Every structure is written in structure tokens, then in C-alpha cells.
Amino acid sequence: MAEPDSVITLEAGQVDLQLACLRGASGPVPLTARECRLLEYLSERPGEVVDREILHREVWGQSEQVVSRAVDSTMSRLRSKVELDSRRPRHLITVHGEGYRFVPLQRVTGVKPDPVPGPVHAGDLVLDLAAATITNSDGIERLTAVECRLLEFLLARPGTLVDRPTLLRRCWDGEGSPRALHNALHRLRAKLGGDQLQSVRGRGVRLVLELNPQTNLTEPVHPLLGRQTELARLDELCRECTLVTLLGTAGVGKTRLATQLAWQQRSQWPGGVWFVPVAPAHDVLGMCRQVAATLQVPLRDSDPVAALTRVLTGRGPLLLVLDNLEQLGEQAGDAVEQWTSTGSGATCLVTSREPLRLDHEHRLTLRPLPQADAEALFVTRAQQLQATQGSHDPAAVTALVHGLDCLPLAIELAAARTSVLSVGQILEHLDARFELLRGHGSRPALESSLASSWELLTPPEQRAWAQLSVFESSFDVEAAAAVVDDPNPLSTLDLLQSFVEKHLITVSPGPSEVTYSMLQSLQAFGGARLTELGEEARAHRRHVLWHAQLGSDEVLDNLYGPQSDAWFAKARRAYPDLVAAVRRGQELGLPDPAARCAVVAILARNNTGVQQELAALGEQADVSGLRDGTSAWLWVARARCLKDTGYRAEATTFAKKALAAAASPACAIFAAVVHSNCGLAMDSTAAIAVGRRAVQMARDQGHAGWIAWALGRLGSALYYSGDAEQAESAWEEAAQLFRSVGDEKRALGMLGHQANLLLSLGANAAAQAAYEEALENIQEPNRQIDRATLMGNLANLHAGEGRLREARALYRSAIRLQRQAGQDDAAGITYTNWAYALALHDEDAEARRMLQYALGLLDPSNRMARGHTLTTLADLERKAGALGRSRQHLAEARRLLGDKSFAFARIFTLCASSQLATAEGDHEAAQRWLEDAEALAEQCGVEPESASQARIDTARRALRAVEDGLQTTP
Questions:
Q1: Are 593 and 602 a contacting pair, CB within 8 Å?
Q2: Taking residues 897-902, what's their average pLDDT?
Q3: What is the pTM of this model?
């Protein structure tokens, strides 16, 4: 009688979709409507893999792509209800990375076969179903055909509870009776002895055997460190799939992880767990011989693959670890496919550097260890090998492990050297890593491991690996095509794809482009081969010329435009290559390309913490023999770098030279802006004049990005001179122009400038909101100097409003970023501001110490900062009664700040001078200094709530108190 469409027969019983329940041995199990719909949809497509998106759409009715675990959660609940063992499902199969597949009852054995096991050893018992015998301490007993079928079915499910209807259906084809089953189980229990065959009333029967593990593995000497996530995933795959390939580059620890997994599972496979080293094999026949030798079976058949298939089928469920299969590649695929998909019961765990590309293959890629795990591995192995608990310098360990690419093999070999070298010494010898990291044999262990990968490549692939080793950092397809000596870009793309699959390079998808990188060990190996091939000079030349084009006139002329962020991102990523290209270009007699590379490096990494390194890079580039345009760009790049490290006088000289030699309008504008910036701290009046010239030059060119950039810098000069209205106008126009070219980040950067202006005018709430918004939008690592400046200014605001705790945290963060970036001058300014905040809260001793730090850090040419610092120190000396020292500091501050420049700083100094004169009893001088301060404040448009006005009011009250004959506290 045909089964109705609403009924699905499973091992656990029958699912009635209309009644929404499973009718099994232990009674009805209710199902939800969603569970029924999911089971029905999959059962209508037996054997078909259905992905999660389709199930979301067809079962859940969700028309748009969603990110949800609904399918997985529902599937988990459904399995717990309708599968005999939800951990080893027989009908609802997960196809990892794809979706789910339904296997009907009649096809269950095609998925996870139940082969006749070979002899099974469990304590004193030996079960041989092929011979239909049980051997125990009392001798040998015969098994009936029914008993063999029962044992065969239960041995494939050790410890799993199986209900009696399922046993009847599977072992009697549905024709037996419950009484016959009861009698067969009773006889079998007597033959097994003990409590190996357990009955659970009302639920079913299970076979509980403590199997004697069959394996050629020995227990690992050392515990596995790290890799717990990968180990758990590998364990899951080997339980659910018949073919798992563990992938990764040489030395990443594939064999170690595979053997650990195999050792852990050794008691779970009736047919045993077997480790087969395939590396000695040169063809499929050699691989078969290795497998046969491991299993200790003869191999005389003309078809060794088929012969081993029969052997595996007779062994029962087993795990076969095929180690280092990459040298055979796809030619081993047919054999592995037969062993894992013909009902043999074998599960193959393959370690390889590239996949077998079989349909039922499941892959797990092993990456280098996380940094923390890699450091723990090194320290643990070093202590074990030295039989000591001696400590190692943590910073040196971190650097060493990073230099070893966090590869377990390299780390273990390096740890072995700690018996004769310190970690620092090992680090010093890392350039000769292949001689350093030898194994116990005569050949260098790490090098031989990489050499095996090299030997498996075709000659074009070998040359490409060697040529790509010239890259010091990540690279994209275009860069690879420029360096690899191949006229066909598509051919280079094929090579890259092949290298990714072979785990010779790592691919990193990004928001706008895909980049590739090579581990340092692979790069060093490829570099040695490049020298052997005699192609080092040619490859280095192509490398230099490719990076030089990032600094061509055409590219730099459009530096501040829609493609600005993309250019800066690419140049920053290529910074290590640009540094190498400067050196290589000089060595190869390519001074002009080398100088262009220096320009790109300096512009890309300015204000990111490597200022001193950039300055040295600019000096390294030889200006003799350069084209005028290249010389000008190099001078302007060096000027900007020197200005940001506090060397404003030298920066001004370079900026003027660049302005005179500029061959492109963009270079001239850039030089003028840098010249203007150099003058901000020395002579803001001159800075404004040069800044206006830069803006006009940009307007003449009609390039919105350059106009905006010049206006932003001009606004700063106007602000420092006290022209608040024009400064705000310049910044607002700059923001609009940046937005017009799609540069939202720089438009937001204008917020920081406007916040400074708001703070100086007393609009504290608006200033704080602007600072916080600007900080929120400047999160990129390459903008840490901008973040430090904003933090320092926001700290000033908090300090002024009495929130000293918040101010301290911001000051510390700002100074840390500035010192990391080599910007001592900027750190000196922040220290001065912090000291001023402390002085406001009567913490004079700490404030004085900070001011001394500041004076030691500030560049002598930074007139504004030094004047402000000296004024703050003079205030503290006056409060301490040291009027003579206060007078000296103020005289020097007034000299540095001049009569017209640096208006806001000068207001502060004039007020301090008035208070000192008041303390000395010179009321006429005090009044004169105060009137000068008030006139300057009026000229600058200072608001009543501003810090400048508060300082004027304080000086005015001190003078009036003395004039009225009142006792006042200085």
C-alpha cells in the first residue's frame, strides 16, 4: 500500500504532516508548523542541496535577503525530534557552506554507510561479523544471521539508543515480530556477556562497548597550544563528512592538528584511526602502497585502488589521515573519491596545501596562529627545551614571533635555539632565518618545507613567486602585473589565483579592492630564488617604476579631489614598498623615480607617527640630476615633514625653494600653503599673506579641492592673528568645497578649527559639541595627530569649566599620541595647556614641572607656543612671590609674540604683565598693559564669555582692588 503524501517515513518513525507529529516507538512527538513545512519542503527534493536563502524565501516567506539564524535554529530543533541521534543525523544532512539536504529512508545507507565491520576488539571480546563469531574468555560462539545484522546495525551507532520498530524494519525488512526481536536480543545479550547490550524500557536498545583503539598513532609528546576553535570545527567535520581537507601553507601546523584530532577520536572508530604519510609517494600507486603498508595488508591486485576499497569496506567505520597529499594533487582525487563515497565506511582527513576539488570535499583552512597563542607557544617550548623556567623579554618575543609569521614550525625551531642564543640574538639573526631555523637533520627544516612547495610549481609559477617576493607589503593585481615579467595581465591573475589556492599568498578583500600579501618566510625564500635566477635587478627596477607612478605630476596635481582618499589609502598601504623603492632606485641609478617614491611616502605617512623616519627618507633621496618638477615636489614634501616635527626655519627654506622650482600649479600651491603653515608660529602676518597667495593660485586653477585645502590653512593663519570673522568664513567655504568634490572627511575636519574659534569666543557648549563630533569622525589610525590636537583642545575646555578629571585623561591621551608620532613640539604645547589648567586649580608645583617639560620639548622657532609657555610660568612665579623671574619670563614672552602677531596669546601675556605690574605697585604700567589687552581683544571681536575676556576681567579686578586700597591675594 502506497504511503500517503502527508506521511514521511524516517528511521525514528513516521512523520504525519497533517497531524504535525512524529509517531515513534516512545509515542507521538509534536512538531511546529514551521518544522513541518521545513521537513516537507526538503523531502520533496530528495538529495538536492537547498541553500539557506531559498529556505528563508520559500519556507519563511521572506522576499529580501536577511541575516538570520532562523533556518539553523529550526533545523536543530527538528533534528532533535525526528532523528535517532541528532548529532549524527541520517536524513537531514548539513552541506557546509551550501545548505541542507534530505536523504530518504531507502537512501540512508548511501550517505553514511553501515558496512560490515572487520574484527572489533572490546576488552576480552572479539566480534567478527564476517565469520559470524564472538570470541570471549569462554571460547568462540557462533552468531545467527539476525544477530549479525543486529550487531552490524548497532556497531555503526555505538552508544546510540535505537527503538525496536527501527530494529525490526532494518534487521527483518519489516517482516519480523516484536517477540522474535525480543528473543534475538536476549540471545545476543547472553553471548556478549556483561551489560554491553542495554535496554531502556519503552525507548529502545543501545550497544555500549569500550572498544580497544586500533591505530598506528602514538600520544603526542606535547599538548596542542591554541587551535581550540579549529580543533572543534575539524572534529565536527570529521563526524559529519566522509572527506575533509585541512589546508594551509608550509609550516602552519596542519599535520599537528590532524594528528591531535585523530588521537582524540581513536576510540570512536570501530575500524581504527590510521595515519598515512603520503609525502614519499610520487604517484597514486605509491600512495596506495603507503596506505596498504599502514593497514598491514598485501597489495597484489592489478587495481590497487579497488583492492583498498574492499579492504576499507571490511574494516568498518575508520578514519584515514592522508598527510601531505599536495605532491599528488588532483591525480589522487579518483582514489580518495572511491574510498569515501562507495560505502566503504572510511572517512578521509587529508592535509594538503591545495584542495582535491572533489564535489563532496569539505575544506578547513588553517591560518598562522594568533599573536598571543604564537607567543605562548614560543615561551612554552623554550622553557621545555631548556628544562628551565627562565623568563624572556616580552617585547623581543613579540617581535620575534611576528617576524616568524606566527608559523608554528618556525616558532618551534626558533625555540630550540634558545639553549644557545637569547631571544634578542635570535631576532638579530632573522635575516638568515633558513640557516638559523634548522631541524635536527643536516638540511634546514623551514627551508626544506618551503622547497617542497617550490618543487611542485611549474617554471612560470616559480619565477612569479620569486618576482612577487620583491614586495615588502601587500599589493594589488595591477602592482603584481607590473612586477611579474608577463605581458598578459590575465595570466598574472591566473597565477595569483593559483597561489591563493596553494596558500603561497594570502588574499584580503577590501571595500574597494582585493589585496594580496606573502608571509615573510615565503618572501625570504622567494627572494633567494630570485637571486639564483639572476632576475633581482630587473624585478627591483619594475618594482621602483611601478611605485614611482604613484607620485607622477598627473596624480599629484589631483591629490585633493574625489580620488584623494583612495590614493592616500593605497600609498599608506604601500609605505614599506615605497621606502624599499627609494633605496633600490638609488642603487639602480634611478634617482628621479626614487625621489618620487620618497615624495609619496612622506605625503602619505605625514602625521602618523614616523616623522623622524620620513625626514631621514627625504634626506636619503638624492636631489642631484632630478627634473625640476621632481626636485620641487621633494622639497615641498620635506618642508611639510620638517614643519610638523618643529623645524620651521628649515621647512620655510625648503618651501621657498619648492615654490621657485615648481613645474606644476599643484606643487606651487602646495609649497605656498606649507610656507604659510611654517609662518603660523613665527609670524602670522606673513603667514596670512602667503596663505592668500596660495588660495589665489588655487582659484586661478579652478581646482575645488586645492582651493579648499588652501582656505583651510589660511583660516588657521587668520585665527591666530585674531581675525575671527575671516577665519570662520574661510573654514566654512573650505568645508563646502570639500563636500563639492566628495571629500566629507576633510569637510568634517573643518569642525575642529571652528571649535577652536567657538572656544576662544566663549561659546563653550557649541565648541564642545563641535570637538566631540570631529573626534567621532576621525577614527582612522593615520589621523592620530589630528585626534591628539582635538583631544588637547577639548581638555582645555573641560579644565576651564572645572572638570579637571576629564581634562587630565584627555591631556594624557593627546600627549601619548603626539610623542608616539615624534611630534615633541606639539606635546610641549599640550603640556603647557595642562599646566595652565593645573594652575587654575592651584596645583602650582605640578604645573611648574610640566612647564619645564614643555620648554624642553618646544622648537625654538615656535614663537607663539614658547611665548604662551613663558607667560604661564611667569604667572606661577608671580603667585610664588618670585617677581624678578616673572618679569624676565614676561619680557621674553612679549618679545617672542611681537606687537601684531598671535593676538590671543598676546592678550594673555599683556594681562599677565598687568597683574605683575599691579603686584609690584606700578599702577600706571598695569593700566597701560591692561588697556593694550582690551584694545587687542576688541580688535579680535572677543565675546564677553570668552577665556580672553575672563583673563582681562581678572587683571582689571586686581588693579581696582589695589587702587581702592584693599588687601588682595595675587
A1: no
A2: 64
A3: 0.61
Confidence of residue 843 (pLDDT cuts 50, 70, 90): confident
Report whether pLDDT(2) > 60.
Answer: no
Task: Sort 773 into a burial class: Cβ within 10 Å, 0-12 / 13-18 / 19+.
Answer: middle
Q: How many whole angstroms separate alpha carbon 636 and alpha carbon 672?
A: 9
How far apart are alpha carbons 585 and 470 in whole angstroms?
Answer: 13
- Sequence-ordered list of residues with C-beta below 8 angstroms from that of 32, at least 6 positions apart, any chain: 20, 77
Contact 472, 580 (CB under 8 A): yes
Cβ partners under 8 Å of residue 780, min gap 6: none
Q: How far is CA 632 from CA 590, 623, 669, in A?
A: 17, 10, 11
Whole-number pLDDT of residue 567: 83
Nearest to 943 by CA among 789, 787, 777, 725: 725
Which three-class secondary structure string do you get for 759-776?
Answer: HHCCCHHHHHHHHHHHHH
Sign of CA dihedral 698, 703, 704, 708: negative
Burial class (CB in 10 A: 0-12, 13-18, 19+), 310: middle
Name the pLDDT band for 573 (thresholds 50, 70, 90): confident
| Contact between 296 and 249 (Cβ < 8 Å) | no
Answer yes or no: are the C-beta atoms of 770 and 731 closer than 8 Å: no
- 685: confidence class by pLDDT, cuts 50, 70, 90: confident
315-343 burial: b if 16+ Cβ within 10 Å, else e: bbbbbbbbbbbbbbbeebbebbbbbbbbb
Residues 106, 302: contact at Cβ < 8 Å? no
**Residue 356 burial class via C-beta count within 10 angstroms: exposed 0-12, middle 13-18, buried 19 and up:** buried
Q: What is the 3-state secondary structure (H, E, C) of 62-93?
A: CCCCCCCCHHHHHHHHHHHHHCCCCCCCCCEE
d(CA 181, CA 317): 25
Spatial contact of 161 and 203, defined as CB atoms under 8 Å apart: yes
| DSSP notation for 90-118 | SSEEEETTTEEEE--GGGGGGTS--PPP-
Strand 27-30 relative to strand 50-51, pairing: unpaired
C-beta separation of 828 from 858 below 8 A:
yes
Tell me which of 117-121, 367-371, 431-435, 768-772 is least confident.
117-121
- pLDDT of res. 234: 93
Residue with cell 535554529: 73
Residue 853 is classified by DSSP as: H
Q: pLDDT band at 943, cuts 50/70/90?
A: low
> Which residue in this structure is represented by grid cell 618572501?
523
Q: Please tell me the distance from the alpha carbon of residue 82 to that of residue 90, in angstroms, as a whole number.
A: 10
CB neighbourhood size of 470 (10 A)? 26
Q: Are 741 and 774 a contacting pair, CB within 8 Å?
A: no
> Is the pLDDT assigned to residue 442 strictly greater than 50?
no
Q: Which of 271, 260, 247 is nearest to 320 (CA)?
A: 271
Span 298-323, pLDDT tens digits:
877 678 888 888 888 777 788 999 99
Which residue in 320, 326, 330, 318 sits closest to 252, CA to CA? Answer: 326
pLDDT of the residue at 679: 61
Are the CB atoms for 225 and 380 separated by under 8 Å? yes
Strand order in the sheet with 21-24: 7-10, 13-16, 21-24, 27-30
Burial of 218 (0-12, 13-18, 19+ CB in 10 A): exposed
Residue 278 to residue 289: CA distance in whole angstroms: 10
Q: Say whether pLDDT at 389 is over 60.
A: no
pLDDT given for residue 970 in this prediction? 42
Give the mean pLDDT of the chain.
82
Measured in degrees and rounded to the nearest 5, phi and psi for residue 403 equal: -65, -20
Q: Note the pLDDT of residue 608.
A: 47
Residue 957 has pLDDT above 80, yes or no: yes
